[in-house]
Amino acid sequence: MYVYGRNVLKEIINAKYPVKNIYFTDSKKTDKTLNDLIELAKKHNYSFSFAPDKVLQRMVNISKHQGVVIDIGKEFKYAEEDILDNLKENATIIILDQLQDPHNFGAIIRSAVASNSDLIVIPKDNSVEITPTVIKVSVGLAFKIPILKVTNLSRFIDVIKKRGFWVYGADMSYNIYYEMDLTGNVALVMGNEGNGIREKVKSRCDALISIPMANNVDSLNVSVSAGILLFEIFKQKSR
Amino acid sequence: MYVYGRNVLKEIINAKYPVKNIYFTDSKKTDKTLNDLIELAKKHNYSFSFAPDKVLQRMVNISKHQGVVIDIGKEFKYAEEDILDNLKENATIIILDQLQDPHNFGAIIRSAVASNSDLIVIPKDNSVEITPTVIKVSVGLAFKIPILKVTNLSRFIDVIKKRGFWVYGADMSYNIYYEMDLTGNVALVMGNEGNGIREKVKSRCDALISIPMANNVDSLNVSVSAGILLFEIFKQKSR
């Protein structure tokens, strides 16, 4: 998979994420940021080469590659299920139930890292996956948080409940998000753009939480809702 | 301008927004929601006709028109500057300084209406405008809140400050958003996706407010930041 962008490369190197090769533009019109990145790749023993802008553009099918394309190999490296053994105390897990839009996924990854969350979980089927667009929208932060794919979300929720997580589903309810205690080990379930959380997943949640809204609006963009709830969790845990 | 979608038409009719014509699909495979919309349009004396799906698709260049395309005339009806005389007590104004992305604009409009905000302001130049995509992403809520275009944002900020508004710019600072008093007449300035708020606009703000972030992340998607700040304002004003 070819991913692109300067922030993306920076996060890949920060995460010591293994890649096949880095392609930098061979254009003479480089700048300090790009030269710094080349030095950084060299210092960390990453394999890299130079190629014309046109070649980079063909690799990622986009002209805004910022002079950097990275071949990260066949597939993005998702987390292994034993990740649960390695979470910190008072962890935050975000579960995305059949999210569809790569821009929403990328924005949620960015909010997850910024709000000190520990793990993102998506189902294997009927879900957006990690793509070059998702990685770009996440400004490379997809490399900074483990992302786990599970076969069965309901089963996964049962597993983390046994491990002491409280599972909150974002849905219409009488529980106002800022009146709930969201400290401790917490999992937040966000639903799909059109239909919200599936019934069978919702029934597994310990409680539903809502963002009160005016003017009869009944939902927000899912990446906005996720951001509001994640930063409430972060705020409560920071106290 | 042709806009599309069922939520969009519903909000147009709710807002009594004048349109040139509504085109419904002539497909026999209609459903209750669509029939209800046709009845609603009829009841409110909107001019409408029927056309093949292919024609609708050609009008909006998209296949997901949901059987509804609306000709809203040459241009979207922006608010007039005398809107300031008609705002409620303790109003909330959102100022978007050279926002570029239609998805961000649409998501912010949705959050603005849901958080009971009163007015959205954009500059005439170098800014995303109201387009069919923006309207669709706003789930039609662009018709539910006045949107004002101004020639000079700095001058506009001076005007509202004289009218008693406190103007907060979203930017890196030591002022944590939830520790600030955001009640009363409040304006929130959000910057552009790449560069934030322009210096000359920033210098007009009464204070800068920040969302504290972990892991050295220095910004969120702008529609997510706007959502977090707008719902903090809404929460404080609801108490």
Automatic annotation (TrEMBL), chains A, B:
InterPro entries for this protein: Alpha/beta_knot_MTases, Ribosomal_eL30-like_sf, rRNA_MeTrfase_TrmH, SpoU_MeTrfase, SpoU_subst-bd, tRNA_m1G_MTases_N
NCBIfam families with a match to the protein in the record: rRNA_methyl_3 (TIGR00186)
The protein's name: 23S rRNA (Guanosine(2251)-2'-O)-methyltransferase RlmB
One Pfam family of this chain: SpoU_methylase
Taxonomic superkingdom: Bacteria
Ranges where the RNA 2-O ribose methyltransferase substrate binding domain occurs: 2-78
Gene field: rlmB
Residue spans crossing the bilayer: none
Database matches in PANTHER family: 23S RRNA (GUANOSINE-2'-O-)-METHYLTRANSFERASE RLMB
Keyword Transferase listed: yes
Key words of the record: Methyltransferase, Transferase
Entry annotated with the keyword Secreted: no
